[in-house]
Each structure stands twice: as C-alpha cells, then as structure tokens.
C-alpha cells in the first residue's frame, strides 16, 4: 500500500503477461535484455518519490486521508497545481536524461478525462466508478499505459461501416453480462503496456449512433486473459562499436495490443454505448496528454540545445554568425514550447469541474514542437558536420594500428580531446543522426559553402540590377557608369 | 496594315468605348491624366518593334507571306521559338522598367489556346475561325486584353446552379441567331481592357453538361455595344511630396467589364456549348499565360534585387552577414524563377499540334514566385530600415527651414549623397513599402536586435544544457565543473 | 493635477512647439487636419481612465498618497502587476480599434528603465532624479514620447569615430554648465513626439569609453527651444473614393526630431558620461518596450484574424480546407504571441529592484510577431482574393450608371449584401492591401489553382515513381503491371 | 584495355590495399560481407556500358581514335553534351535503385577541374599531365574516388597557422625529389576510396601565400604505400527481422583516408605550390560535382515521391486534402531540382576552355535539394503514420502465434494485402524512418489532429474578432448582434 518503490514495481510485473518481442514470447519482462531497460526507465518515477530533493514535487498528501500519494494522481484545483504538475514532468524527464518516465502521467491524464466525462454525463454509476478508480490508483500507486489508437482499417470509413474488411478495426463490445463486458479489437503504438500494471482503453475518434458498440472505455490489468502485447524492438543498447558510457540507457518501447474477447468487470467500465459522450472523453484526454507532452518535450529539447552548443564549441565555430543564428533558433524553439506550456496553465479552463490547461494553447504547444522538430534536427546536423555519420567507431579507436591516426587527425579546437569530440558525435548520432539527412546537408559541400558560391558568382549580375534600380530612382541615367 | 506604331495604337483607342474611372465616365482614355499613363505603357511594345536593337527579337517574317509580324502572333515550332519568346517578354519588361507591356502577350496566349482547342475538337468551322483570328491579329497588330475571371457569386456553386442569386454570375449565351450570339455577364480583374483594341473572353473553370450555355469563348472589339469598363484607379502619378524623376511612369490598371447583352458575330465565336472542351481551352490558356507571367516577373524581380543591393550599399551594410544572406536568398528566388521558366521551354509538350512550355514546370515557376514574394518584400524592407516609411518628403527636403537638418542627419555611408539615399527609399517605398509590414519589422527594434538579445540573455542556460549533454555523452560526471 | 482628461491633454499641446508636416510649419497640432487625428488617438488613454468599465484597470491608488494615478506610472511589484499592465495595454488597444494609445506606455517603459539604471549605478543624484521624474509624471499624468533611434550615419562606425562624416550622427553633449547640459543631434522614427507633452531621450546602442559624450539620457518638454519635429505624413483620412465609416480614424505618426543645441536642466539628466551603464539602460528599456509591443500587437492581430474570418464567410469559402488551415495558422500566430507575452510575466526577473518580464521571452514574443507578420498578411490577401485591389470605389458604387451592375455582379455568398463585402474589402485593403503582393498572389490564378494543375499534370509520373518504389519494397517485379 | 566489365573491376581491387572496417583490417574488399555490397554497387556503371539499352548513353567514341570510352571521361563541347551527361547520371542512379554508381562521375568532375586549372595556368607541364591523366582514364576505364575534405583541426585557422595543434590538419607536401613529391595528412568523408582504383586528392579551401605547401593536387592508386582507408560501417544488410527482398542491396560507404608520407610521381601532380590557382581548381570541381549531385539526387527523390504516393494509397488517404498538398509539395521539390539542374546546362559558362554548367544555378540546385530535404522526409513520415516505427517485424509476422493478429489488424485500405503495407513501411523506414522525428510528429496525435482542435476550440473567439472587424468596416455597430 502507499507509494511503491522501483523494486516493488519491478516485482509486480512478473505476472505471466503475454508479451512478444522479435518474434518470440518473452518469459519475464524484467529480465529480458531489452525490456528490462524499459522497466528501469519506468522505475525512475518511483525513485524520485523517495528522494528528498524531489519529494515535495512528486508527492502530495491525500486531501482527506493525509496519506502520501503521487502528485499525478491528485486532482488539480488551480493554476498552482497545474504549474507544479508541469514542473514535475519537466523535472522527471530531466532525471530520465531526456526520456519521460511515463509511469503515472499518461494514466493520470486518462483518469482525469474519465472524471470529466463522468461529471459531464452525471450518471451515478459512472461517477462512482471514476471515483473508485482514482482511489485505487492513489492507494496502489500503479503504473498505467493508455491504449487509444485503434488500428482503423480504412481510415476514411466509420468503425461500423459495412465496407470495412471486418468489424474489429476499432475496439468494440462483443458481449455483456452480469460480470461485465467482453471486448475485441487491437490498439497500435501503445507505449509501455508490456511493462506497466494497468492498461486504460478509450476510443480515438468521435462516434456516430451506429457506432455505439465502439463507444467503450475501460481499464484492466496488463496481464488480463486475452491480451497480447507485440513489442517493437527498441535499439537502445550500446553496441560493441560504441564508446562505452557509464550511465544506464533510458528508453521506452511500443506495442501492438490485441484484445481477444477480453472480459472487463463493470466497475472498470467508464463508457459503454454513450456515443455522444465519446467526444468529451477523447478531447479531454487529448488536451491533457498534449499538455503532458508539451511539458516532457521541454527536458528533451534542452538536451538538444546542449548538444548543439557543445558540438559548436568542440568544432571551434561557436562564434560564427550562422552557427549563433542556429543556436538562437533552437533557444526560441525551446522557450516557445516552455512558454506555451506554462501559459496554458495560466489560462486554464474548467471542464466537468476540473481545471485543465487551455485546450487551444496546449494543442498549439504540441503542434509547434512537432511541426518544427525537423528544423531543430537539421540545425544540429548542420553544426555537427559530416563526421556525425563518418566518424570511426570505438573499435577503430581502440585498434593500435589506427588509434594514433584518429587521435592526431580528428582533433578539433585546441584543448578539446579528440575522444570528447567523438563521444559528443556519438550522442548526437543516436538522437538526430539520420544518415540520409546528414548526407543531404553535407555531401558535396555544406549549405554555407553553396550560399557563398551563389553570392560570389552572382555579384556581377547583382551590380547590373542595382544600376537599373538607380536609373529608376532618378539617381543615374541609363548607361551612366 | 502591318506593324502599328505606338501613335497609331493610341489613335485607335479613340472609339467611344464606355469607360468609368473614379465614378465618372472617361471621354478619351488617351487624354485622361491616369489612363494615358497606361496607354503609354502599352505603347512600348509597339516602340520596340521599330527599334533596331530589338527588332530581331520582336519581329518575325510571316512564314508564308514574308511580311513582318509581331513575334507574339507567330506560332512557335520548337524549343528555340519558345526560348526566344521568353526572352522577348523578359526584354520587353526590362524596357518597361519592370512593368510588362502586356500589349500582345496575353492575347497571343489566348489565341494559341484557341488554336489548341480547335485542333482538339477538330471541327472545321472552329479551325477556320481560329485561323482567321490569328490572321487578323497578325495583319492588324492589335492589342488584346483577356477576360477570364467571372465574378462567380457563391464560389462553391456551379454557374447554372439554381441556388445562385441570379444566373449571370458567369458569362453566358442568352440568345443566338444568324448573325451571332448574345452574351451577358461580368468579368473581374481584367487588365487593360479599357485601353486595348480587342477583348478575348473565355470561361475560367471546367463546366458540367448543365452549364453548356456558359461554355462560351469569343473575341470582340473593346468598344462593342453593351460593354462597360469600370476601372480601378491606379496610384501611378508622382505626387507633390515625391522627389521628381525624369522618367515616364509605367503602369497598368484593371477593370470590371460588364457584358450587357452583347452581340458577338459567329466568326469570332470559338466555343459555344462544347462544355467538354472547356477544360482544354482553360488549361492551355492557364499554362501559356503562367509561362508568360514566369517570364515577365523575372525583369521585375531583377529590379527588386537591385534595390536591395543599392540600399544595402547606401546604408553601408552590404558586408554584414545577415544582409549578404538576404541578398543571396533574393538571388536564389530570382534564378529559380528564371531556371524554371527556361526549363519549361526545354521540356515542352505538344498540345493540339502546338509546342507549349511544360505545364507542370510552368505552374511550379509561377507558384514559386507567388508563394515566396512576401519573403522577398520582407528581406528588402529589412535591409532598407524604418526610414523606408518615416523618411521626410521632397517638400521637407526643399523647405529651407528643414533642408539643412535633413542633408546633415540623413546621410548614410560616407560618399553617398543624402538625396540618393532618400530617392532609393522612395523607389522601394513605391514597390514594397507596406507601412504595417515595415512597422512590424522595425518598430521596437529590428529582427536582428531581438535575436542578439535572445542569444545573450540565454547563454547561461545554454551552458547548463551543454553540461547535461556532456554528462550524457560520458564526457563529464554530474556536478563536475 | 491628477488624472488629465482628453480635452486637457489637447489644450496642453498648444505650446508653440516647432512641427513640420508636408514641408510646412504646423501652427497648432490640435487643429491640423491630419495631426488632430493623432491627438484624438492619444486622447483615448485619458478617456479610459474616466470610464467606469475601465477605471479599475487603468487607474491605481498611489501607494503612499492614495491619489489616483495611471497604472502605467505605478511601479510593478509582482506577477499580478505585470499581468494587469499587460491586460491594460491589450484593452487600450482594443478600445483604440487596433491602434495602441501609446500615451503613457512607452514613457513608463523609459521611466522604469531609468529607475533600473539609477538603482544599478547607485548614485544618489540619479536615484533622486529618477524618483523625481516618476513623481512628476504620476502627478501631471503627462504623455511621453521616447526618442531612441539615432540617425547613425555609417552604421558600422562608432558614434565618436573620426571616419563619420560629422560627429553629430548620435545625440551628444556639446556643453554643460550650472544649469544643465546642452545636447545636439537627431533622432529618427520618433512616434508621437509632435503631439505628446514630453520627450525622453536615450542612446540606442552600447558605447565604448571614447563615446562618453554620447552616453546621455534625459527628458524634456516637446516644445523646448531648439527642438524641431519633422513629421511623416500619415495616410489616415478616409478619402472621397472610400465608403464612409461613422467611426473616428485612429492613427499615429512619426517624426525626425532635431536637437539643435538644446539645454537640458540637471534634474532631467539621467545619464551623462557613464558609458558602462548605457547597456543597462538600453537593454532594460528594450525589454520593457518589447513587452509593451508584444501586448498591444495582440489587439491588432485579433482584428486581422477577424477580417480573415469575415472575408472567408462573405466569400462563402469558410469551409474550404486550405482556408480553414489559414485561419488556424492565424490563430496559432495570435495565441503564440499572447502566450509568450503572458509567460514572460510569469517568469519575470528582477533588474535593479524592479520585476521586469523575462527578457529572453519578451524578445522571442516580439520576434515571433515580426518575423511572421508577412505570412499573416499573405494569408488574409489569399482569402480575400483579387477584388481586394480591383474592387470599384464608393463613387462608382454611388454613380447610377454603374451601381446596378456592381450590386448585381459583386455579390458573394447569398444573404451577404454586396456593400458589406465591399466594405470589408476596403477595411482589409487599408490594413494589408499591398498591391504588388496581392497581384503576386492572384494575377494569373491563385496559389491553389497552380497547386491543382501541378498535382494533376504530374499524376502519371507520380504513378511511375510509385511502381519503382513497389519494386524496391519487394511488392512487385520490374515491368509487372 | 578499353571498357572494363564489372567482373574485371572487381578483380582489379584485389591489390593489397590497407582497409579497416569495424576496427579490423579487411583482407579482400571484394569478399568482405559489407564491402562487397559497395563493390557490386560500383559495378553497375560497368554493367550499363555493356547493356544495349544504355550503351548509346553510357559510351561515346573517342574523338580521335574512335575507340569506345565512357561518356564520363569525354570532354563535353556544348549544351547537348552537358544534357546527355546529366541524363546518364539520372539513368545510372535509377538503375542503381536510387544509389548513384559513383564509379566514373566524381573522377570525371575532378579530371575536368584539373584541365580547367591547367588551361588557366597555361604551364606546359601541367597541360601535358592533365592530358596524360585523361588519356589514362579513358583507356583504362578506371574507377576514381575524390578526396577533398581535410580534417581541418580548428576550422577558423589557416592550414599553416602556428596555432594549429600540428601542421598536418591539411594534406601537404613534406618532401620532393626527382621522382616526385611526398605528402602527409588525412582526408575525411571520402566515399568509395576503399573499393575504387584511383584516389584524386585536392585542397578543399582557398589558400594564402604562406599555405603554399598545402596547395597540392594529385592522383594515385588507392593501394599506394602509406595510404590507409578507415571505413565507416554501412548498415546496408537486410537483417533477420526484415521482410526479405529479392533484390541486391545497393550502398556506398565513406573512409577516413590517411596519407602517411606517400610518394606521388611527378606525372600525377596537378598542382604543387601554385596557391593562387587553388581557387580555380576548388571552384571548378565544386561546381561540376554539385551538378553531378543535382543530377543523381533526382533519381533518389523520384523514389521518395513514389514511396509517399504508394503509402498514401495503401493507407487509403490519397484523396485527403493535406495529403494531396504534401504530394504536390514533393513534386515541386523534385521538379525544381530537375529544372535547375537542366537549366544550368542550358546557361552553361566557359571556364578554361571547357563548358561547365552555370555555377550559380548548380549551387542553387544543390542548395535547394539540401535545404529542403528534411521537409521532404517529414512529409513522407506524416503520410506513413506511426506504424512506420511501431510496425511488427518479419519474425512476428512469421510466428504463428501472432501472424493471424497482424494479418487481421494491420490491414489498411481494402484490397491492399497487409504484407504489402508492411513492406512499404519497411522500405520507407530504411530511407526516412528517423525514430525521434516520427515520434515528434505522431506521438500524442498527428499534426492534423492538433490543427483540428485548435480550429474548433478557437471558433468562439474567432467569431468575436470577426464582429469587431465588422464594426471597424462600418458593417455593424458595437454590440449589435
């Protein structure tokens, strides 16, 4: 009971859940060489709650019982609560070295969306279930994954359309009795379901009346009978060619989750046929979770800015005009994200009795991040240079036949060890080192090299155009030199 | 007969046409203080044909009669013809100081589109009329305006839709007899119809079967009974506050053209009910005319590049990094337009037996120009500075009480006379001096001033992010300085 | 004493100040047909303070005397004060129909910057003068213009460089005695100095030791002997061709201000030779005033969004995909500005004992507005269509010979009077109707028209590329159809 | 002698060259499991010359001997030759399934640059050596890599600067005698040197007089004593998790090339101390090679357009507005590249007696490709959706416990096999599947999802702004509904 430790969380995952990875059944997610990285990443959220320097941020007292509970599972009341929660997510992601813990945040978003929908519907049973589920999460301190994206089939068609190849492209109720409902379908891109306690399931689009069977939301343990998690293999391990780093790797992975006639007890059913209320649930969750995203992306973007500046300094070009411009652009990108995320708390709105960050501004924050991310990656690739891709490996660096050459020739600015430069290249490569992008930028000469030639090669013509403008301004006559 | 002179063209416009400007009937377009500017602008195309240095470009021999005819009215046969025509348009617009003569080019585009449509339809009467009209234009060397854009009413509705407020939002045939057809409707944004000889009229969108009455194309003299030209007042005159420039003002203006039951004789009817062929005519004209646009915009853009460079030099900032970047961007904008326009000739396609510039590439050329024009204006405004708007007038410059202060204080780079700087500002103001845009850029400090502060104010944080990246790369440990 | 009325402010400007406009001396700025528009615009700030609905926002009690004073002249203490001031500027600009009153805000920015600089320097005389000036403004409720931008000469050179054509390109101290200092120079782009009570003068760049004479800041009445205001003629009047609107025109104008050996008494001198402190003063003012800008631009941008939506509805295209996209972009532009401006209050910093909005975020807010304004203008021009430029005038609309045609043919969506459409076009034309920009967009067909043709004309090739991709994916074999 | 076959080329690489890969010495590049992919890729250029359908394009007759030689090694004379060469590169890259053969093209660019420099210098020995090298390449039909990019050290410093950590950051002459010169240094990012016959070496920047020892250009066999190639490990192999494709993998890789006091015989020295001529050589090569790049990138980009369209169709969204917009943007990106590349041939200039594609336009072509590549990647990622990253592997697809679910649930548009969709995802993932970019776009909902919410959530405010605009236009009064 009460706040879990990271170790307790790990133990709780040994529950015979059905997980596949690289085409094989995983016996124990906590010992699998890839998935245990994810389990450890999830664990940092539990660690923080027990660390004195984070406790005030991560833990609050239950308003009635006074028991310590995760701040995530506490219902916010005002601007300060929203800003504190925002700060917790940023801080947690910094602690996760740029990777969001995810353990409680998305589940809290879902839980709050369920409360808003229940308050809006006003039906007693839903209000009680929402309250019950919140109580359960507060007491057990469980990790919760959220399964929203249906596999959809033909995206243009409604879930119940007879033109769909089969009726199961969206999760739906196929049966119901005293105990609960039976659901079937599949959800894609579900982060962490394979190594979290609970899975919260909700629709991903608005529904029409004929889609009532698809208007279903619920929560169940991740090892419930009939559930299957097919994981996407993460590329998180440091390989033998990599410079070894004495820090844990942090990463999550996603699953395709199959619901093969899964029984959900009534007290975990939060929507079942009320198709007109799907929109409230979907929009509330989307807003809350985009605010979560706009918060955790801050800590990740801070690291990208840091990599750009480090690389600029190691390359000795931090004072060059276009490099400063790029760093300034990165800072604007980061601070605009921060400001939008924080302003959305300031200008919150009340939905179903709960203050939520301003929906328009949350969405703008997330949009701004997503629409400009590629420019951010490009700026860093541009600053790093082609060595981002072509740098020799750690094994070349270790080989006595080549090490001397590498040490000698791959030095950058005097005073920066060659190894530091190669290590920073390696870090950036893992984050933004898309080979074809780097080659598009740097093969056959950098963008700046081309700009320089375009300017130089065109100057004679530019002067000719200038003379014509001077004639037109009455400054010189045609042909006058 | 044969090539007209500019004076002959002017005389030909005294034909009792019905023209309104500033709410009043214009008696004679060649003497009206505003419209005579347009008449003179149209005249330069005739002047060129008589100038030895342009004659080879502007005039060709009729392939059968050997008579000199305008190159515009000659049917192109190959890449060289297309490139020569392109060069003629660029040269003519340079001669027009950045304003396209327009006199023959758009009419030629229409004439060629008519030929293509006739060849595609293959009907004898249309082939003869197309041939006859071309012959007429070649012999008479007339100026031709083209009226495409219908006023449309509700744009979502078809021309014949009963939901339109009335059936005349698109030009249509309301009657027909032995002599010809009677048409009714209005066309908007029609450049030069008030001061050109002929008006060519064609649909501006594809049609459905029920729109057959709207599938009509024809050509008539601009003074035909029932036509009314309501002109948009041009702002072309130099005013008393302007530094006087000893060059003619060049400009065109547009009209709303009303067709109040106008009779069109059969030999000038090029489409009448053949709704399936509207698309051929519309697309051919659009392609040809966008190529024309992608050609004449070159000469106009050259002047913009010239203004930017002149202003940069007068302000003494032509070596500043971001200024060179902006000049380079302008050159890329210009040369991309040129290259697309020329490559479209190289990769021409045959339509209805006539080589036309590659339709996809023509459209890309025009799109590229139009979509990026505002960035071009912004760059020049940025280089010019706030004085673009706030510079004193010529009258202040003449007033002995203020002239000394202006001479003394508004000098820029040593060696550049203050008056030159003010004259170049005036020229640029007329071309791209939108007050709110300039104020958006320069009020409260320039873009660069803000970038500088953002960079400086953020450096402490940037260094903090850098340290975190170094920890992650295995270069330093947490807290290590 | 105490809060002025608009009428009292107007009276206070009849003080024999030396003002030029259109090359002539203006006898009385309150009766000049152009400048009185500006005087009335300035007056709205005084009006607000007397209107019950705005009083709480516009007026605060003096913390010591309890007297009502303008909120602008009150020293902010915390986040709430910063947000209230922000709200006052937005509200005042809404009341000014998109034009900032300007009357107290920029002066307050200067006054606060002076306090910060005095606090940082810590010299008693400066502290007293700063306090004295604040007290004076609070009591007299005066309007204050700020003169920052020197005319600069060659911008690459320092103020004191011997390469400058003369030493007066930056305002400097040429003499000093018991009474005060004597200053000489000129300032450009000075909004409202011709019709405000006071002019605050400060340097516009950082200084080196040899520039000490240029390190001077002071405030004087706008009619001080030796000052000359050469105004830039505003184009604010509705002309005879315009649809008459029964609302006052709101506008400001700028001046070139000459300081011809002007005496400044010591108690109004805030900096005199302390070149190392110029940066504090300049940066503080720049930050504060960019926050002011990021606030008032909100109300202006709201109107632009409103125009876009109105025009989309009048044209009947508000549901078209690319139009909705453009409206959404405009909303993001507006709300990003708002959010940055508000977040800068939330994350304020203390400078010289005064809380000021976060400098990095203020600058990002202003940058974001300025760098993207042209895109905003382009979107509105695109939605409005070519009629934005080519629409007939009010006189054509009144002329019985053309009115019927205009009424009939220029209707848009059913139910919207033609006059409404023309009036909205007129409003937009005044704000963003740059002729060459609109023609770049709409002449020869809109951007969408070109996109449509590019897509259609390229489909055959696209399908060919698709087949090659399918071969590469192992889906089909080469040549297989 | 004469044209080599791919097999002969392969044999010629068994020459004891010193190559490292993954930290180990490679005995035979033609049998190494990774490098043999590169060798085969290089071979396709030889294959083409022997295929009837390509022979006319790939092979020309020697102007004097009449012997068949590679078109690459022939000196172009006019527009047609430049366009044919352009076509050969596009065609070769299509044949290489999007990967440029590289075998002769970059070497030809270097050879032509050497001729231009020799012609400009006008020294007899250089003219003879240039001629001799061209003759050698024509006869032997060798593959040539080009080593330009020095490792540079501190990029702000000149090669000979005493502040550089050592004098060897740029390749330089350390000794010379009767036989030739001895060179030392390293070149980075050198494509294909490990598996081509010859390496051509030239400076990468302009030089000052004190850098004369660094002004050196030469060509040598890749197995010359003292040369070491440290390869960057390519990720070209299909792995066990990948759907198997029955096509050869095509790829190149890069090397860090070490010159450890390498002897170059005089007849292969093309520049040795003539520092004023470095610029001619560097600029000529840069221009020629950027034209090569602007040609081969066309075939690569065609495939990207094909992938986008295939994926759009498989997802059933090819008719959605924003998807069509993205496809149109991709086509414009591609056709602008094509047009610039072709127009640069049309507007060629003569350098040192050889026609070369227009330098400004070549550079614009390459810049345009490079600066916008990330937008192109983003568009494809956006169309593909999150499954691009999260799709199950081939092993999951083969596992009978999960195959049924995958087949059932990952179908898209009816009629498209699930396997086809997964294969296309796999292909796109290899080309543009940067995980963090895809997650930036798709995690927490797509860009479109956010735009939709921003628009919807803001509509009430938009209507309010609209009303204010209507008041300002004189259409309604304040407060009127």
How does this model look, in words?
- Four copies of one chain form a homotetramer.
- With 481 residues, the first copy, chain A, is an alpha+beta fold.
- The first copy, chain A, is built from 15 helices and 14 strands.
- The first copy, chain A, has helices spanning 6-12, 35-49, 52-58, 79-95, 105-121, 124-140, 278-314, 321-346, 359-384, 387-390, 394-398, 400-409, 418-432, 435-442, 447-472, and strands spanning 19-21, 24-26, 59-61, 68-70, 144-147, 172-176, 180-191, 198-201, 216-221, 227-231, 254-265, 269-272, 349-351, 354-356.
- Chain A is globular and about 95 Å long.
- The termini of chain A are far apart.
- The model of chain A has no long low-confidence stretch (mean pLDDT 94).
- Chains A and D meet through strand 7, strand 11, helix 7, helix 9 and helix 10 of A and strand 7, strand 11, helix 7, helix 9 and helix 10 of D.
